[in-house]
Amino acid sequence: MSRVFDVTGVMEMKIGFDNDKYLQLQAEHITARRAQFGGKLYLEFGGKLFDDFHASRVLPGFAPDSKVKMLLEMKDEAEIVIAISADDIERSKRRGDLGITYEDDTLRLIDAFRGIGLYIGSVVITHYRGQAIADQFKKRLEALGVAVYLHYIIPDYPSNVPLIISDEGFGKNEYIETTRSLVVVTAPGPGSGKMATCLSQLYHEHKRGISAGYAKFETFPVWNLPLKHPVNLAYEAATADLDDVNMIDPFHLEAYGVTTVNYNRDVEIFPVLEAIFKRIYGESPYKSPTDMGVNMAGYCITDDEACCEASKQEIIRRYYAAACAVRQGLSDAAELRKIELIMNSAGISIEDRPVVKAALDRAEETGAPAVALELNDGTIITGKTSSLLGASSACLLNALKKLAGIDKPLQLIAPGVIEPIQHLKVEHLGNHNPRLHTDEMLMALTICSVMNPMAGYAIDQINRLKGCEAHSSVILSHVDEEMFKKLGVNISFEPRYQAKKLYHKK
């Protein structure tokens, strides 16, 4: 199993993926695909472009911004179109990793792309059927100087191919004006209509006499890994709310006699894509959904064991996330049941996540909420609730002490520093909980580092928390949950609240 060691010889995060090889292979494959069509290429980008944290969690070594780095090599030829579903706008769908709505993430992505020199061509609102809130978002974007296009729902999509490939199908969609040869279609999340946007554009380009092709860059499922490989099962768990199903690509198996993995939506839409290409070129350049893809991730796994273990942990985390969503009334039990089936397929249970038992045991021992964190060398650190610190704060502080080689009893933050903060929180800011949250604890620790070098040394260990696993015996506050995410700690928590009340601050 691949490991990384820091300068002190301490074992750090397990690595199972060669990111540099991935960037090279991916760029070469996309360039070859563009040459295949000789003109314009619509490249559907699945997953996240800037911050693909799911990929970085299940493929240790994968950089969250890998895809963007690759695009920057082609930035003079590329433009980006962002697709967002009107249905997702209507239900205020949020990104699970960032906790923001798809609308806000669209604005964030525009700013981020522009900030690194990538050209944003437009935004397309898909699945549009006159939703008032979608109209509001369109006006908001246009007021900000962003071009917006509308794509409509097509009855019996994707089965009614004659209707789809007609003026009453794709023909009703607004033609997206583009100016560059490589058009990257991305979205805040899955199910946004990226593929349909690309196919619609192929139809309109053909009507205008413009030669254009299509390719798909979808990281998951990994087509050249087994169907039940933990990396692919983790993708199913991540998309349990979409009813996506990984499956053997029947078209590829028939055409080549080779077993590859795809997912149901791509398999369902393939006859439409094939019909469009036949209408444009007289024949289809692709014999299967797998042929459409350009994903090279499977060739860059260097330690399968490390990726399998990371993926199993991701599945368990997804189980807890779904259980908490059910507890909070944000999801129904069907999603949870699906992930339970995936766990059975992977041959895992919550017992395979060591921090769960450690957190629950500590909570039972103290009679109060507790948090456990597993360092990258396997050491498990716990934190309990006290009069000064919440369990999350205590656990992080104890972990930093351990990484810095500081004895646990040694006090890094004096009560005289904590107490004024508590007074401010309760007496002036109206908080009921006087205990320091993780952000407050880290601020206090930083202040103490001015006079206490040991506190400064503890702060210096923060980056070494990245990739660690953690679990809480109760649902965390938004502040603490977000801090764990910012630190790169993979947090999960039990589907229960600390307090027996109906209202809980988000």
Textual characterization of the structure:
The protein is α/β, with parallel strands linked by helices. The protein folds into two domains: 3-300, dip2346 fold like, CATH 3.10.630; 362-506, 3-Layer(aba) Sandwich (Cytidine Deaminase, domain 2). 44% of the residues lie in helices and 14% in strands. It contains 20 helices and 14 strands. It has helices at residues 19-37, 53-58, 66-72, 86-90, 102-115, 132-143, 161-164, 194-207, 230-238, 250-256, 264-281, 289-292, 304-327, 333-346, 354-366, 391-404, 415-428, 438-448, 453-459, 478-486; strands at 3-5, 11-14, 40-45, 78-85, 119-128, 148-152, 182-186, 212-217, 246-248, 261-263, 370-374, 380-384, 469-472, 490-493. The strands form four sheets. It has a six-stranded parallel β-sheet, sandwiched between helices. Helix 16 crosses helix 18. It is elongated and about 75 Å long. The protein starts with a strand and ends in a 13-residue tail after the last strand. The relative contact order is 0.10. The model is unreliable at 1-10 (pLDDT under 50).
Summarize the model shown.
The chain is α/β, with parallel strands linked by helices and 506 residues long. It has helices spanning 19-37, 53-58, 66-72, 86-90, 102-115, 132-143, 161-164, 194-207, 230-238, 250-256, 264-281, 289-292, 304-327, 333-346, 354-366, 391-404, 415-428, 438-448, 453-459, 478-486, and strands at residues 3-5, 11-14, 40-45, 78-85, 119-128, 148-152, 182-186, 212-217, 246-248, 261-263, 370-374, 380-384, 469-472, 490-493.
